[in-house]
Each structure stands twice: as structure tokens, then as C-alpha cells.
Amino acid sequence: MKPETVSLCVIAYNEETFLPKLFNDFIGQTYPHDKIEVVLVDGKSTDHTRQVMNQFAEKYADEFHGIRITVNEKRVQAAGWNVALMTSTSDVIIRIDAHTSIPPDFVMYSIVSGFMIIAPHFCRYQSWFFLIFVV
After folding, report:
1. pLDDT value of residue 1
2. Model's pTM, two decimal places?
3. In terms of C-beta density within 10 A (0-12 exposed, 13-18 middle, 19 or more buried), how is residue 130 classed?
């Protein structure tokens, strides 16, 4: 079965500087935007991370399958990942670090190739990793 919807999940804490570039990468994806859900988890940031997320959601709410913003009360990245997993409603979940830059065909390539783990060398900038889960 080919997955239909994809959640791009970002767990962020004080990432106001990096999120605009990542959001531009989301906008540039070749995969149909009406099949992309964006899940943004804020770890109670002390900068303007939440405002940057809200601005993105307001501006692009009609372009994507959904943009969900939630809070990671525990402020620990692993707990934020749990929040993202519980928030996602898509067939496929892709975790993307806030410092990452992804190429325009990243989501399409990930779906077509069926990769389960994408190594850091796939992205233009250093990142921890990408995880892709088919649910």
C-alpha cells in the first residue's frame, strides 16, 4: 500500500533563527502539499520560536493538509518526539530536526524509495537524523 499523507514533525527549542529556512524547504517540497501535515512541537522556548511557528501556520494553513502546533511540557527532546507521534494523523511520519535543510524532492524521494532511516549525509547541513515511519 502506498502511503497517502505524510507528517513532517519538528521538535524545537529556541530555534527562531533556523525555522524560517526549514519552513521555506517545506513550502518547496514537490510532494503534494495537500498530503503533507506539518507537526511543530515547541519545547517552551524562551525566544520567538512559537511566534515563528504561529506565523507559518497562519500564512500557510490552507496550503497544507494541516499545520499542528503543540507544546512539549517536559522540554526534553525525547518527550517532544512522543508529543509529535501522538499529534500526527498521517500514514507516514518523518522527523526533521530544526537545523536541517531538506531538498525539494525529499518527501517524494522518501515515499517512493521506501527508506526507513535517512542518514545525515542526505541533507545539505548537519543534522542528527531523519526517521521515517509507515503507520
Report:
1. 55
2. 0.85
3. buried
